[in-house]
What we know:
The chain is of the alpha/beta class. The chain folds into two domains: 5-177, Peroxisomal Thiolase, Chain A, domain 1, CATH 3.40.47.10; 180-326, Thiolase/Chalcone synthase (Peroxisomal Thiolase, Chain A, domain 1), CATH 3.40.47. Helix content is 33%, strand content 26%. The chain has helices at 22-28, 33-40, 56-69, 94-102, 118-131, 155-158, 207-211, 221-242, 260-270, 281-284, 291-299, and strands spanning 5-14, 18-21, 44-47, 79-83, 108-112, 138-145, 163-173, 178-186, 194-196, 217-219, 250-255, 308-315, 319-326. The strands form four sheets. Strands 1-7-6-4-5 form a five-stranded mixed β-sheet, with helices on both faces. The radius of gyration is 19 Å and the shape is globular.
Amino acid sequence: MGKITAAITAVGGYIPDYILTNKELEKMVETNDEWIRTRTGIEERRILKGEGKGSSDMAVPAIEEILRKKNLDPKEIECIICCTVTPDMVFPATANIISDKIGATNAWGFDLSAACSGFLYGLSTGSSFIESGRYKKVIVVGVDKMSAIIDYTDRNTCILFGDGAGAVLLEPNEEGLGIQDSILKSDGSGRPYLHMKAGGSLKPASIETVTAKEHYAFQEGKTVFKFAVVGMADVSAEIMERNNLTADDVAWLVPHQANLRIIDATAKRMGVSTDKVMINIHKYGNTTSGTIPLCLWEWQNQLKKGDNLILAAFGGGFTWGATWIKWAY
Ligand code: UT7
């Protein structure tokens, strides 16, 4: 028996119907469409509307799409890794809520918190479970309802983020396809620049924290931008170098969608032309853990068996990384 690798064998996605345009944001904060487009590349983003709806309500349809496509009984799913910074509740894990909602009664699971790099961390973790030979069907879902933690009076953040979910099924592969290599990094000293101040054990919710708007995402954009531009480009170049991949070998760059300028800098550093870069930031903004799997979801019909994909992300933590995948179908 050959070496077992972990391959993505199906992709599902979900984006809410409601579209929040730049024009609409102009009525909410002191901003304008031109500024948002030129500084970020974003034109609109999706918002999950409705009472009593959380991240699991987007993760579930994304995973159900996979179950339908693969004609899978939910009971066959062995593990669900839910990458998110906007869990339905602090506990129990959203992964447990998802298992219950889809009827994955034989699955265990957990939430993984790595902000915008969440999906890459989850993919690497899920792959190890498959490579070990212990599991044969692992779901990794990246989902965030960013609108739940965004202050729509703060123009520094409200123009950037949106809601969405993307999911993949990981299965064993014996042809050497699937996840080939990952470089994952973190630096907790970056926490002052992108975080949520209250609601954790350090500063539990109180009337004061609510009044001070400390349950919203805070970002010092300029500083994060500087680290992101270098971090995402460096790690993408590093994964190519250590695997002797040239720009010609790369079929697709699948970047985290935080800012078009960060994506462009990464592609440039890799020497990859724009036509090989998956970009949907104009439609969805930054969906945090959702960006990379949502790109795979949108581009899945264009992917060919054996294509080399480089996935790259940078986000809060700081966390960042890159993953090399040989597409398996
Ligand atoms: O996914 C997690 C990781 N996050 C990121 O990667 C995000 C990284 N950061 C960014 O993408 C960018 O820093 C932003 C898009 C957040 C901001 O772009 P920037 O080019 O760094 O702008 P800035 O913050 O330096 O602001 C430039 C100017 C300022 O005015 P002055 O001081 O030059 O007069 C801001 O006050 O633009 C002003 N400004 C705005 N104007 C209109 C800031 N936000 C807005 C706004 N609309 N929404």
